[in-house]
Amino acid sequence: MVLAQLGGSIAAALARMGKATVVDDKVLAECLNEISRALLQADVRFETVRDVKANIKATANLDALPAGTDKRRVIQKAVVGELCRMLDPGKPAFTPTKGKPSVVMFVGLQGSGKTTTCTKYADYYRRKGFNPALVCADTFRAGAFDQLKQNSSKAKIPFYGSYTESDPAKIAVEGVDTFRKEKCDLIIVDTSGRHKQEAALFEEMRQVSEATKPNLVIFVMDGSIGQAAFDQAQAFKHSASVGAVIVTKMDGHARGGGALSAVAATKSPVIFIGTGEHIPDFEVFDVKPFVSRLLGMGDLSGLMDKIQDVMPVDQLPDLVSGAFTLRLLYQMFQNLQNMGPLGQLFSMIPGFSAQFIEKGKEKEGQAKIKRYMTIMDSMTEKELDNTNPKLMNESRIKRIARGSGRLVKEVVDMLEEHKRIAKMWNKLPLNNRKLNTNSRDSLKPLVNAIPPNMLNQLGGLTGLQNMVKQMGAQKR
Ligand SMILES: Nc1nc2c(ncn2[C@@H]2O[C@H](COP(=O)(O)OP(=O)(O)OP(=O)(O)O)[C@@H](O)[C@H]2O)c(=O)[nH]1
Predict the structure, then answer these.
(1) Pairing state between β 216-222 and 132-137
(2) pLDDT, position 96
(3) Could you read off the pLDDT of 321-367 as tens digits, one per residue?
(4) Would you say 188 and 135 are in contact if contact means Cβ atoms under 8 Å apart?
(5) DSSP secondary structure letters along 22-75
(6) How far is CA 355 from CA 36, 352, 362, in A?
(7) Gap from CA of 272 to ligand 1 centroid (Å)
(8) How far is the CA of 134 from the centre of ligand 1 (A)?
(9) What would the mean pLDDT of 246-255 be, rounded to a whole number?
(10) What Å distances lie between residue 102 and 119, 215, 234, 238, 444, CA to CA?
(11) DSSP string covering 270-337, please?
(12) What's the predicted TM-score (pTM) here?
């Protein structure tokens, strides 16, 4: 994602300033011009960039600093503070409380990723112990009902919608009432979109919002829309009092500036980002670690979360002792996808070794995982949990290929690969089905993925090895 480039440019501007013999107003002005250029290139609006520049200058206030102050650090702090301020409007978004019914309404243009994001959001809270439900109030797009229904059944989340009712506000109210009675504590209302901002869409949003009285309205925007984000976000804010933003498709070529503009337009924080088409491709958005990562300062807490995430292989004793089903393979893929480049940790999971992702072919390996997950997304629950080798007959394979838009040969290849891994897995004694942390070689992919300064903080290779061992021990 191009946000990384923005971070890189700002970090470079700061580094150049750091090399100047004397830091004076001229050096600061050069640094600020460089930062402004980087922000404009990332699609941040001119007005916002102008304010950022003025704010950094005012916060650093070089003339008022006592002699002997480290001006570089003061400027660095002002830049980091201003970037955080841009992304944090200072007013936290409403967060649902377990056991207390909340209604959350999703708004956004057609194709922004709204429907997909509703399910990701529901799944996120379900994993936190909530009892979420989905309501489809999109009567505009013909396929919306089926899409949300399919997503919700995949994620095992209750769903309400209607093929026949054409009034979105009526469906929304019926759905909310139904799930309130069923004691759901997070009722998510998906609304319709249009290709462009139209009066009819905003009127519909106003009506649905008035009828359901949501605790939170989330504006979903495609991260790649750039400058148009400001006006779009503002228009939704006026019709349905947006309280939070989710930026999708941050895995693609999103420049990120749009996200900054949406925050400015709605005065609401970004709460999550979407990083892919699958349900687990969803990350909590936390401003400080995000800015740290953006500027290459590392994010230790994020890294810890990611390492913890790979542990479910050990955490799920019933799966570990049971058969190696397609569902287990899918769950492993989910964990690895969540870890981004740390997916290289794959080689630490026994049974997979280097065969699945060949050295130097990590990109192809990731694409293969995505392809396999898409194929498995078209399987039934029975197929995912299947242990009978005869179940996958020709007609099932053809149906899965059709449903996932992949070739029959690709489905067959995936099933063969699953068989191969399952065979290896089944040969492993139970206590060997954990992360391999004993050999230093097995930690190499992790070491390569960690910035050197972070590795130092962890106590080098030995510290890392101890930490991973301790984590593994806690889980067993
Ligand atoms: N790469 C990527 N694709 C995404 C992401 N979120 C959604 N998509 C894809 O974007 C496309 C549109 O998503 P939908 O969820 O159908 O969009 P929508 O906004 O609900 O559209 P309407 O219901 O027509 O208003 C789908 O192909 C999704 O798979 C994401 O974070 N990354």
Answers:
(1) unpaired
(2) 95
(3) 567 788 777 876 776 665 554 444 444 444 454 455 555 566 677 78
(4) yes
(5) S--HHHHHHHHHHHHHHHHHTT--HHHHHHHHHHHHHHH-GGGSPTT--HHHHH
(6) 46, 6, 11
(7) 15
(8) 16
(9) 75
(10) 16, 6, 24, 22, 45
(11) EEEEE-SSSTT-EEE--HHHHHHHHTT---HHHHHHHHHHHTHHHH-HHHHHS---HHHHHHHHHHHH
(12) 0.61
Among 86-90, 220-224, 411-415, which is the least confidently predicted range? 86-90
Give the integer Cα–Cα distance in Å for 346 and 278: 19
Q: Do β-strands 186-191 and 102-107 pair in parallel, antiparallel, or remain unpaired?
A: parallel
Q: Output the residue whose Cα is nearest ligand 1's atom 29.
A: 277
The residue type at 75:
I
| Residues facing 136 on adjacent strands | 190
Unique residue bearing structure tokens 């005012």: 58
pLDDT of residue 459: 58
Beta-bridge partners for 135: 160, 189
Alpha carbons 451 and 138: distance in angstroms, whole number: 45
CA separation for the pair 236, 197 (Å, rounded): 9
Q: What distances in angstroms separate CA 170 from CA 141, 200, 297, 341, one per listed residue?
A: 17, 17, 50, 45
Q: Locate all alpha helices (DSSP H) within 61-198, ordered by sequence.
A: 71-87, 114-127, 144-154, 168-181
Query: Which of 116, 121, 123 for a ligand 1 pocket mutation test, highest count of atoms within 8 Å of Cβ?
Result: 116
User: How far from 388 is each of 205, 281, 339, 382, 408, CA to CA, in Å?
Assistant: 49, 30, 32, 10, 20
- Rounded Cα distance between 184 and 195, Å, is 32
Alpha-carbon distance of 249 to 220, in angstroms, equals 11
Residue 69 and residue 65: Cα distance in Å, rounded? Answer: 7
Cα Rg of the chain, angstroms: 25
Q: What is the ipTM of this complex?
A: 0.96
What average pLDDT does this structure show over 413-421?
86
Most confident of 185-194, 302-311, 336-345, 461-470: 185-194
353: left (phi over 0), alpha (psi -120 to 50) or beta: left
pLDDT at 358: 56
Q: Which of 208, 224, 277 is the best mutation target for the ligand 1 pocket, counting ligand atoms within 8 Å of the beta carbon and taking the most?
A: 277
Residue 108 CA: which ligand 1 atom is closest?
19
- Quote the pLDDT of residue 387: 85
Residues contacting ligand 1 via CB (< 6 Å): 108, 110-116, 138, 141, 144, 147, 192-193, 248-249, 251-252, 274-277, 281
